[in-house]
Each structure stands twice: as C-alpha cells, then as structure tokens.
Amino acid sequence: MDKQNLVMIGNGMAGVRTIEELLKLAPDSYFITIIGAEPHVNYNRILLSPVLAGEQELNDIILNDKDWYETHGIRLLLEHQANHIDRRARLVHCENGVSVPYDRLILATGSLPVILQIPGKDLEQVMTFRDIQDVDRMILAARQYHQAVVIGGGLLGLEAAHGLKLRGMDVTVVHSGPWLMNRQLDRVAGPMLQRALEKKGIRVLVKRRTREIEGYSGQVKAVRFEDGTSIPADLVVMATGITPHDELARKAGIYCDHGIVVNDTMQSFDPRVYAIGECVSHRGQSYGIVAPLFEMAKVCANHLAELGISTYTPSVTSTKLKVSGVDVFSAGDFSGDADTEEIVLNDPFKGIYKKLVIRHDQIAGAVLYGDTTDGSWYFQMLREGRDISDIRDTLMFGRKNLGDAGHQGQKRAFEMDDGMEVCGCNGVCKGTIVKAIKEKGLFTLQDVRKHTKASASCGSCSGLVEQLLFSTLGGDYSQRPALVALCSCTDHTHEEVRQAIREHHLTRMVQVRDFLEWRTSDGCSVCRPALNYYLICAWPHEAKDDPQSRFVNERAHANIQKDGTYSVVPRMYGGVTNADQLRRIADVADKYQVPMVKITGGQRIDLLGISKEDLPRIWADLDMPSGYAYGKALRTVKTCVGSEFCRFGTQDSTRMGIDLEKTFEQMWAPHKVKIAVSGCPRNCAESTIKDVGVIAVESGWEIYIAGNGGIKAEVAQFLVKVRTPEEVLEYTGAFLQLYREQARYLERTVHWIARVGLDFVRTEILGDPKRRHQLYESLIDALRDRTDPWAHLVKHTSGPNQFETISI
Amino acid sequence: MNNESTGWIAAGQLADIPKSGARCFIHANHRVALFRTHDDGVYALEDRCPHRGGPLSEGMVWGNCVTCPLHGLVIDLADGKAQVPDDGNVPTYPVRIEKGTVLIRFPIL
After folding, report:
1. Nearest chain A residue to B29, by CA
2. Cβ of B26 and A520 within 8 Å?
C-alpha cells in the first residue's frame, strides 16, 4: 500500500506522544506532518512551574529536539497557525497561505485558559499561565512589578503564586471557592494548605469573587471584589481553569460538545479525523493532566497503525501539588457519600492529615496532606479496585508496613539527599534519577529503568523510584497501569495470554504469538521464558519445553557465576545426607579440583567454580538428583531435627520435609519456591520466611505462606492448622498449584499475595474442599511424568551439544 | 591491510546449532560465539560481553539480539553494539555458509 499522509495540528505533549507510539508500532506507514503554532519544539509543559520558579530553564524541559523530528522524517511546520480544515478536499489551510493535504488528520489543539469576562481583563499586565510565552512574560513582569494577584486557588494558580513569590514578588491568591483547591481537597486539608502557603509569605483570600481589574492609564492598579473591597496590584494572573480548544474543529463542522467529541478509538464524527489530548471530550469528560492523555495517545496510535485492538476507557485521575515544601495529594471521590466510610488520621502538630474514602471495601478516594509518600500506592489500589479488607488495619500507615522499602531500608524518597543510593544493584543515586526524569522527560517506571537502570535488576527499589516519579511529576506521573502488558511485543496482559492458552488450547509458543498477534516473530527475552512457563503449566503433558526460551541456568541445569563457571547443588531431601553421598561429593571435589565446596543456607552442599564441559561428568559421578538450585522451581525444603532427636520436637519434621520435597520436586513455578518445616514453635528451620512454612505443634501442623527472606524480609502469614502429614501435603500442594496457575511469571508468592490478597487464597483453599483437592490433584498430575534433568542429560548428551566448547 | 591475508575457518554444521541458539568456538586466542537466529541469520561475535565479560553464547537469542546471561545487556548481533541505556561494542567476525557448513573469517596476524 502507498504511504498515506498523516497530518497533526498541534505540537504538544499528547500529540507528539501519539506520533512516538505510532512510530514504535508502524514506523513506515505514513508521511507525517506536524503543524505547530508555537515557535518551539515539543516541551514538557508539566515542568513550566519549575521554570517559572527559576529551578529549570526552557532547554531543560525540551522533550523532542529538532533532530528527533528530522530523524523520523517528520515535516515540522512551526509558527504555522492552522485556521481552516477543508474536509471535502482533505486539506488543512494555514494562516500564512500554506496548505497541507491529509489522508488522516489528528487534532491535538490542546486547551485555552479561561478568561474572566470582567472589566480590565485586556490590560497589558493581565496574564494567563499555560505555555512558555506566558512564563516568559511572567518572568519579565516579575522584574518590573511588585504586587501580584493570582486569581484562582487551584493547582495552576498556586504553582504560579509560588513561582512569582520565589521571583521576589509580593503575592496574593484570590479564590472564589470556600477553600483552596476545593475541587481536590476537603474542608480540613484546604485550610491546612492555606496556612502553609501563608507561612511561605503568600497571602490567601478565599470566598472572594473578582468584579473588576482596575487600571490607570493602561496599567493595572487594583483588583476589586464583588463585596466592594479591593487590593492593590500591578500584575494579575488569571488561573481560573482551562477549556478545550475546539474552535478549528467546530468551524469544520465536526461535532463538538465542550471539546471535540470522540469515540473509544479517539476518532471524531469524521472517522478520518482523530482528536487527542485536552481538546477532546470523551464520554462527556475532558482531561487536563498528562497521564490519561498518554493513554489516549497509545489507543490512537494503535488505531492509526491499523492494529485496532485497544480502546480508551475513562481514567481516574489524581492530583499532586508541585510546590516545594507543601505536600498535597488527592484522588478519586474524596468527599464520599452515604455509602462510604472514612478512615482519617489527623496530626495537626506535625501538619499531617490523611483521609481515605472507602466504598464496599475498596478505596474510592484519598486526600493526603503533609505526607504524600503513599499517594501512588493508594491510587494504584483505587484503580485496581483491590479489596482492602485484609489490610484495612494497617492501610493508613502506608506501604512501608507491607515491606516495599528501599535498598537500605529507606521508605521515604523525600527524606533522602541527592547523593544517596536508591538502586543498590546498579548504583544509581536519587539525584541522577530526578535529573533524568526532568531532563529526559520520563513518565513511567519503565522509562526510568530504561534510561538509568534504577530498579531494573532486583526491582526492590521500584517503590522508591515510583515515589521519585510521583514527587517530580505529581498527578502527571503515568503510573504502572493496573494491568500490565506482558512485554513490548504485545498489548495483552499476562492474564489475557494465559486465558487464551487455556481456552484455545494453545500448546506451542508460535501459536500463542500468532493467535494474539505478537508484534515480533520470535518474541523477546521477556516474553519467551514467560510463555514457555505458561504453556507447560497449562498443558503439562502436551506442551514441549523450549530450551532456547530458558535462561542459561535452566538450560544448563546449573547456576552461572560471574566468571562464566557454574555451581552444582545436588538434592539432599530435607537437608539429610549420609556418608555415601558425602564420600561421592568429596571424590568429585578432588577429581575435578573444585575450587570451593560450600554449605548453602538451604541445608545442601554447593560445588562452585565448575567449568561447563565438566557438568555432565560431575553429575554422572555424583549420581544424585538435581537440587534445582538454579531454577524458577521448587528449591530446598529446609528442616530442623524434630521429634526424632530433639527434646523439644513435637512432630517428625525431617520426615515431613523429605515427604514434601519428594512429592513436589522438579516443579516449575513462576519464580523460585522455598519450603521449610520446623518441629516446634521455636522454629529453627526459619519457616516464617519461606514461600510455604510448616511449624509443628503438639496437636498438628501450622501452615504459613508467602514469607520471604530475600531482598526484603517478609514474615509469612498464617493460612491454616491441620492435623496430619497427609493434610500438610494436600494444603501445600493446593497452594503451590494456585500460585502456579495465578501468579505472573517472575512474581514471588509474597508479591502475588500482596497483589491479590490473602483472602483470595483462603477462599480457594480453605473455602471448598473439592476445589482444594482438585488443585492438589492437578499438581500431582502435572508432575506425573517428570524426570531428573541431570540423569536425563547424562544419558542423552552425545554428539554436538551445549556443554562443549569447540576448538577449530 | 591484514584483511587481504585472512582465512576462512570451518566451524561445523549450521544444523548443530539450535534456532534462536548459539555455540562457543575457540580458534587461536579467539573465543567466538556463533549465533543462529529464528530466521536462520548467522552471526559471529566475540564471546565476551563488554560490561563484565559474560559469555554471550549462553544468552537468550531473540530477533537479531542476544541478552547477556550475567546482567542483561542487549547486544545487536549485526553490529555488536549494546542497546540503550548501555553502551559498549563487541567485535564481530564475518561469517558465511557453504553447503550447510558455517565458515568464520579470522584475521591472521
């Protein structure tokens, strides 16, 4: 097909993001022309406030420089004012006589500031706060004038006031509502905000409607209110809201109703004409912050690339004020109604106020003042509709209690200084991350990982990185969506992919990619291992394992070390061994001159520094099963001595551990799985930091789940107490199978439970004996034709194989 | 200049390398990772990641890339360049296939 002409009117963030998304999906499908009225390339409008405050320069906030447009072959017409769309001839006419033909057109004309229709509005020193020219004018004016009045006590007005104050002006904010930010804050937080601003030297007048801006020989002199009073002023900023800029569309006969009306694929009533961003009215709603606009951009790009599988659904938005030293967050329905309950924390002495609005055990809204650390966490649960009944008691105290803290235990990004390390794996400091967010225009956790590597390895500092995104970008931070695409090869989520595998009986990776229209022909290093696991989990006897889609450790059945050698850990059931095994291990250590022999934390023996060529021979000499110490699989079952020898032991914990290990060994899982069995509540086997921990008591066995001793220690939660060893096996197996079927690939039990809630597991496993038994039986069936991989490789490694290095 | 006096060395059958897989070869003091992509593209690169020296022949091969098994750098097989946000270069060797046999050209010093 010939290339079509795609023309976009508007060169702002939502529009250019659409083009970026389109270029990712279908780089060669259009000749692209962008018509922009401003003389600037696309810049980060979110950061206008810091520019006004003197913290950043225009150059720092450029998102796409001229090279970007050039590299992608985009024709950029700056300072071109589009003033007419001829839909019949499919032409856009500009004021300067240039006209551009289109096959498809995107309207990304943004919004206009609302101007109060009052006397004096046209005086020279009356300004708005929308674009870089406004900021330039304000900076210039701040040098010349002294008394600024900002009309409008919303987000934008307060940020303008803060900036002008920092530029040395005497500032008064005038607000007609009952308290500041009354569309985002309740009657407690609003006045708290007012007091904080007053402390910074900004005067605040609420419940004042402006009647007139009084001037004298062309100069602003005062602002007069409807109650007759007035205050002196020589600069006025109107920040009384925005309205969709849809005039061009209306003149072209495209249906508008407080914005260009679009459907769920961002098309206007003329299907050739798309609209995107603040100029849009989608299901009666317009948006003024970036996060939802970026979602629109994705959908629009998807449709333009003729993939046509994504649709836009209305977004819940959140707000965060970017005024240094004043922390305010608001999201959702913060005032509540007859159906809602409120959880409130109010500490006026420390200046902290938090309110969560709960409806039917879900968060419906939140207002945070003074400490907004957990804003993004609450917002995520709000969007996911997570049932909070199981964490209700600790909800108000934030995520830190659920263990998502930083590398060195820091929980609050704002308490860290710029030089402190956020990401311990890759050595990335707070200052580096914040700088990258601002200068490179990063909006998502993924963006930060890609550009700085922060949180890209073990991921334990993701929460801190999110806090940094959140405190730098506020409500514009594009949060990790509740449903994540499996990888960049597809828009489908983990759950959708697994459902398709089950319902359409897909047993091969290529079928999955074809059926779900993958964008790549052989996937990537993220989706391939996940798909391989999902297939063998869903169809254990039909799906064939693909070694090329496994990480080297699972392909070589040994653990790769930093110097390219491997480690070998044979299985010792329940941590119990004997003289014969130890003798063989010692012989192997001698024969192959093993550089280090080490006792592991999981009660086994690790042979380190083995070259790959030696692996099959060592396995043959050891004649012991693989310990799977390298796999996303059942690893160790740690035990204590138990009643056989220990004077405190209440049950035979070693026997229990051995039985568990023999029943579930060689089980692949979304991530590694560790089990422990302790013989009494003294818990010497450390059962409470394992994925499944069993603790014997006089009358039976207690089962704990979802503990973690790794990156962040997490105490396991009590699931159930049972009487017999058979029951321990059945409950453990049912839990493991539920985890195998439900958790996303690379999600440990602790993170899975944090996402779905303990109640979900309780209902599935404790609620219905039939369901529990069925889960257990599915796992036993999946393991029916397992073989020990070492024994298998010893027998079948001949001819050219993965273990040899060939000299030529 | 030495290019004129280089030789092609046979490195076994293409069929012995699995699709989306690799094998490691040693010739003189060269340690070479030979890659076969899903669509039968064949590439030879030094078997050493520019980051911490990881064996690229053990990495996962996808599209025209390999992911280093140690710390996940992604290397473009065609030019040996690391993808953003990392940088680094892996030396490449010319390869061709003759009747199913893979030949690698090594510089002769």
Report:
1. A807
2. no
pLDDT for A412: 67
Element (H, E) at A557: none
Tell me how close the Cα of B64 comes to any Cα of chain A, in angstroms.
10
Do residue B58 and residue A552 have CB atoms under 8 angstroms apart?
A: yes
- Does A471 have pLDDT greater than 80? no
At residue B29, the pLDDT reads: 87
Query: Minimal Cα–Cα distance from A610 to chain B, Å?
Result: 15
Looking at residue A476, what is its pLDDT?
Answer: 66
Instruction: Check which CATH number belongs to the domain holding B68 and give it.
Output: 2.102.10.10
Give the pair of three-digit tokens for residue A166: 């920092």
What length is written for chain B?
A: 109
Per-residue pLDDT band for A478 (boundaries 50, 70, 90) equals: low
pLDDT in tens, A587-630: 999 999 999 999 999 999 999 999 999 999 999 999 999 999 99
CB pair distance less than 8 Å for B12 and A525? no
Residue B3's pLDDT band (cuts 50, 70, 90): very low
What are the start-end ranges of the E strands in B63-108? 65-67, 74-76, 92-93, 95-98, 101-106
Q: Is residue B1 part of a domain?
A: no
Could you tell me the residue range of the domain that residue B40 belongs to?
8-105
Which residues in chain A touch residue B59, judged by CB atoms under 8 angstroms apart? 552
- For B24, the closest of A529, A556, A805 (CB atoms) is A805
Nearest-CB residue to B25 (from A452, A563, A806): A806
Residues of chain A contacting B54 with CB distance shorter than 8 Å: 564
Whole-structure pTM value: 0.71
Q: Which of A552, A805, A808 sits opposite B10 (nearest CB)?
A: A808
In A, minimum Cα distance to B35 occurs at: A548
Contact: A564, B54; criterion CB under 8 Å: yes
Question: How many domains would you assign to chain B?
Answer: 1
Q: CB distance from A561 to chain B under 8 Å?
A: no
Q: Give burial (CB, 10 Å; 0-12/13-18/19+) of A145.
A: middle
Query: Nearest-CA distance from A806 to chain B in Å?
Result: 5
Q: Which of A545, A551, A552 to mutate to test the interface with B (most CBs of B within 10 A)?
A: A552
Q: Is B41 domain-assigned?
A: yes
Q: Please check whether residue B2 lies inside any domain of the structure.
A: no
Inside any domain, residue B3: no
Quickly tell me which residue has 């109010």 as its tokens: A346
Is the pLDDT score of A408 beyond 60? no
User: Is A529 an interface residue toward B (CB < 8 Å)?
Assistant: yes
- Is A617 buried (19+), middle (13-18) or exposed (0-12) by CB count in 10 A? middle
Considering only CA atoms, which of A652, A684, A12, A6 is closest in space to residue A293? A12
Distance CA B44, CA B25 (A): 10
ipTM: 0.91
Q: Which residues of A touch B71 (CB under 8 A)?
A: 457
Max Cα separation, chain B?
Answer: 39
Q: How many contacts does A have with B, using Cβ atoms within 8 A? A: 88
Cα-to-chain-centroid distance, residue A474:
14
- pLDDT at position A422 is 81
What is the tens place of the pLDDT at every residue in A19-62? 999 998 888 899 999 999 988 889 888 888 888 988 878 888 88
Give the angle subtended at the CA of A600 by the CAs of A594 and A603, to the nearest 5°.
Answer: 120
The CA-CA-CA angle for residues A321, A326, A331, to 5°, reads: 40
Task: Burial-class residue A296 by CB neighbours within 10 Å (0-12, 13-18, 19+).
Answer: buried
Q: What is the pLDDT, as a whole number, of residue A520?
A: 87
The answer to whether residue A407 scores a pLDDT higher than 50 is no
Look at residues A326, A246, A294, A272 and name the one whose alpha carbon lies nearest to residue A90.
A272
Provide the 3-class DSSP secondary structure of residue A340.
strand
- Structure tokens given for A484: 């994540």
